């Protein structure tokens, strides 16, 4: 039986791609292979209710990135005692900040292997906050130093690997892809009626969707401008934004400015996975022009439910998407993107065919991914045991 610590600087009730990854790693390892622990900052008034143990340490409000928290393990007198009492076999870090440093210290103390997965474009995050290339590069260099100190480094696809190398990382990098927990076997006919009754999306309506953080790095200004251009082309559609973030109010103001409120709805954060699945399944097209994301889980979630995505040429999110076969690509341009969406929206049978191909080629269950993860964990644990003999 394997004992694994999953370390990340955020966890439920916050939900993003990395949290989703940590959640599924912990769930499937705990269910099939042994004992999982998630180690993460505390969250006010939230009560954990998972099948596996969630160990929280002291945190504080994080300016500019609500609802994320700033982890402060060095102010927590109990966290080291709790972690010392667990006989971990391996540690897996999903963030290089407070949780990552805590894990690295524990790994060195106990002489156990530690993996770190590079998930995010940290340069973009810090440039958004500090507006300075100099400061941002200094911070990214410190992040790279952290990755150089762990035993193994993983990324989620080849494009993300290239990003990490571009940041200056020179050691070996392994690829371990993301998965999805959405059901492939889904009652689509029932869902059409459900969406009509509850959200006034009628059977013949053209529906677009975005799910994710409402932050400018996701290229959401472009999405609203494209939606306005589609209205000017007299395309009838319904668009749903699902998620939260600092840019949400500004996006809502843009929608009002362009008089799109009848077409576009902001649903806020949806934590009910069954309900979120219904939105994905009903959508004809998932709009995801982000240049920020590496291997977006939401694109895989859409694919699992036969909904093709449209992404930007050359983006990390494009990896694995073949235009017109299992998704669509476009230049990062209002007119070109709007024209592409308008043209493909005229043929719903083609959209359905591309969605089916997406389901076959892009979607993979988290259970299957974690089978591969644990196989690699065991190899790493065995390698460490040989070294210690």
Provide structural commentary:
The chain has helices at residues 17-32, 79-84, 98-110, 122-130, 133-149, 158-166, 188-199, 220-232, 248-257, 273-282, 297-304, 334-345, 348-361, 366-388, and strands at residues 2-7, 34-41, 53-57, 59-61, 69-71, 90-93, 114-118, 152-155, 174-175, 207-211, 238-242, 264-266, 285-287, 309-312, 328-330. With 389 residues, it is of the alpha/beta class. The strands form three sheets. A seven-stranded parallel beta sheet has the order 3-2-1-6-7-8-9, sandwiched between helices. The protein is globular and about 70 Å long. The chain starts with a strand and ends with a helix.
Task: Give the CA-CA distance, first to last residue.
Answer: 21 Å
Report low-confidence residues grouped into runs of 5 or more: none
Number of helices: 14
Biggest sheet, open or closed, and with what strands and sense? 7 strands, parallel
Oligomeric state of the chains in view:
single chain
User: What is the number of strand segments?
Assistant: 15
**Secondary-structure class:** alpha/beta
Q: Provide the residue-averaged pLDDT.
A: 95
Strand arrangement, major sheet: 3-2-1-6-7-8-9
Radius of gyration: 21 Å
Q: Indicate the percent of residues in helices.
A: 40-55%
Q: What is the ordering of alpha helices and beta strands?
A: EHEEEEHEHEHHEHEHEHEHEHEHEEHHH
How much of the polypeptide forms β-strand, as a percent range? 15-25%
Described by the principal axes of the CA atoms, the overall outline is globular
């Amino acid at each position: 039986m394997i004992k694994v610590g999953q370390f990340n600087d955020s966890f439920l009730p916050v939900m993003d791609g990395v949290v989703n990854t940590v959640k599924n790693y912990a769930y499937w390892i705990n269910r099939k292979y042994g004992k999982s622990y998630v180690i993460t900052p505390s969250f006010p008034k939230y009560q954990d209710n998972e099948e596996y143990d969630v160990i929280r340490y002291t945190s504080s409000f994080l300016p500019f990135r609500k609802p994320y928290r700033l982890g402060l393990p060095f102010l927590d007198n109990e966290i080291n005692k709790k972690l010392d009492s667990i006989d971990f076999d391996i540690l897996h870090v999903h963030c290089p900040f407070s949780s990552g440093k805590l894990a690295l210290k524990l790994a060195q103390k106990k002489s156990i292997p530690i993996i770190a997965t590079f998930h995010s474009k940290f340069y973009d995050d810090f440039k958004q906050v500090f507006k300075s290339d100099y400061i941002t590069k200094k911070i990214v260099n410190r992040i790279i130093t952290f990755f150089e100190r762990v035993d193994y480094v993983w990324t989620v696809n080849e494009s993300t690997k290239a990003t990490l190398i571009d940041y200056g990382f020179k050691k070996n990098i392994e690829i371990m892809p993301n998965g999805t927990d959405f059901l492939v076997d889904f009652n689509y006919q029932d869902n059409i009626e459900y969406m009509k009754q509850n959200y006034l999306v009628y059977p013949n309506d053209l529906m677009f969707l975005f799910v994710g953080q409402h932050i400018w790095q996701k290229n959401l200004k472009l999405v609203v401008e494209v939606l306005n251009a589609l209205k000017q082309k007299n395309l009838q559609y319904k668009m749903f934004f699902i998620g939260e973030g600092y840019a949400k109010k500004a996006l809502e103001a843009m929608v009002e400015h362009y008089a799109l409120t009848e077409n576009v709805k902001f649903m806020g954060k949806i934590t009910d996975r069954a309900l979120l699945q219904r939105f994905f399944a009903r959508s004809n097209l998932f709009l995801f022009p982000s240049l920020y994301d590496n291997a977006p889980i939401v694109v895989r979630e859409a694919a699992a439910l036969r909904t093709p995505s449209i992404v930007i040429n050359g983006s990390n999110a494009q990896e694995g998407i073949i235009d017109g076969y299992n998704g669509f690509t476009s230049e990062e341009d209002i007119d070109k993107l709007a024209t592409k969406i308008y043209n493909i929206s005229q043929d719903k049978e083609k959209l359905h065919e591309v969605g089916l191909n997406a389901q076959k080629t892009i979607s993979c269950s988290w259970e299957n991914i974690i089978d591969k993860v644990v196989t690699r964990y065991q190899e790493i644990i065995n390698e460490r045991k040989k070294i210690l003999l």
